[in-house]
Design a protein that fits this description.
This protein is an alpha+beta fold and 338 residues long. The chain has helices at 2-10, 19-43, 53-67, 76-110, 115-127, 130-148, 171-194, 198-224, 310-320, and strands spanning 162-163, 227-230, 235-240, 244-249, 253-258, 269-271, 280-291, 297-305. 53% of the residues lie in helices and 14% in strands. Helix 3 packs antiparallel against helix 4 (76-110), helix 5 (115-127) runs antiparallel to helix 6 and helix 6 crosses helix 8. The longest helix is centred in the first third of the chain and has 35 residues, at 76-110. Residues 327-338 have low confidence and may be disordered.
């Protein structure tokens, strides 16, 4: 609304009567006033960190420069100097906070946390926003696993503690085929779009390359960070690539079924399988939380997983929650989760 008012005033016939005064007022409104309102309505209630006010101020400054005629931009000089100082301060603060995040991240990794979890835990107190930390963790995980995951050795799975979830589903083969198709499509689409718009062609290429990085990062994450039975924490640590992660205390687990039907339309049902539907369905006594990419949250009471060594996983998990591994085996008729 404020932007609409300023545009209307600057383009009206009243602007010619007092151009310098109106330009000064518009400059202050679009920069200081907008930033102040943002701080009052967004930062103060805790919806965003204080540092987010700097981009708001910079956007207002750029908007004022685009709106005002060149000969009436005198008031922007001081504001641009303030913006320069703010950017320098933000850069210095980013370096300082980056070092703090790196130190806390190393502590988290040494404690056995997964890459994304350690980064999120390290960044949350520094950034002052859990959502911002989750966004950072997601993007850094994509880049890290896509670029460096190929050179790392996967932990030994099926040892009673770590269980992979991509082999029996055939996802590694499917992901490889999708990656080849995506690479070919990227080249062809770029060549076609470049005939009409160079900017559009590069935007499409960047989007395709990011998709390719996400696909490769997800595959490497599935391989390097399997689902675990963590006896130290007393919890099942669900890890499904870059897609889902959850921590389920052993005490909260009510049942573990093989090849059980999972009604995903039912409230509380989460299909976290890689592809082809879940092999294992874990039922919990009270709702638990699963976190997806970019901070997506899902509460669940039933979660379906793709576990490569499902019978061994079920037996080990039942032993940890204090129940005999009775019930259907992998070859028994499929029970139904109601």
């Amino acid at each position: 609304m404020l932007w609409a008012v300023e545009i209307a005033v600057v383009r009206s016939r009243h602007f010619a009567a007092s151009p310098d005064l109106i330009a000064l007022a518009a400059s202050i409104d679009l920069t200081l006033l907008v930033t102040g309102l943002y701080a009052l309505l967004v930062i103060r209630p805790g919806h965003a960190p204080a540092l987010s006010a700097i981009p708001v101020f910079l956007v207002g400054l750029l908007g004022a420069r685009a709106l005002l005629p060149e000969e009436h931009r005198g008031a922007l000089g001081a504001l641009e100097l303030a913006a320069l100082l703010a950017e320098a301060g933000m850069l210095g603060l980013a370096v300082w906070r980056g070092r703090a995040i790196a130190r806390a991240f190393r502590v988290g990794r040494a404690a056995g946390l997964a890459y994304a979890e350690a980064l999120e835990q390290a960044a949350t107190p520094v950034l002052g926003s859990q959502l911002a930390a989750r966004l950072l963790a997601t993007e850094m995980s994509v880049l890290r696993y896509a670029a460096l995951g190929w050179f790392e050795r996967a932990p030994r799975a099926g040892d009673g503690r770590a269980y992979t979830c991509y082999r029996e589903s055939g996802w590694h083969t499917l992901a490889g085929a999708l990656a080849l198709l995506l690479a070919a499509e990227t080249v062809i689409l770029h060549l076609v779009l470049a005939r009409y718009t160079a900017i559009g062609a590069w935007i499409a290429t960047a989007a395709s390359l990011y998709s390719l990085a996400w696909l490769c990062g997800d595959l490497n994450s599935l391989r390097l960070d399997p689902t675990r039975l963590d006896d130290k924490e007393g919890a099942l640590l669900v890890r499904v690539g870059l897609r889902w992660r959850a921590r389920i205390p052993y005490a909260a687990i009510a049942g573990v079924e093989l090849h059980a039907a999972l009604d995903t339309t039912r409230p509380g049902a989460l299909d976290a399988s890689v592809s082809g539907g879940p092999i294992v369905v874990v039922t919990v006594a009270a709702p638990q939380v699963a976190w997806g990419p970019l901070g997506i949250r899902r509460d669940f009471t039933h979660i379906g997983l793709s576990i490569d060594d499902a019978p061994s996983f079920r037996e080990a998990l039942l032993a940890r929650i204090g129940r005999a591994p009775a019930g259907p085996s992998a070859d028994s008729p499929a029970p139904q989760v109601r």
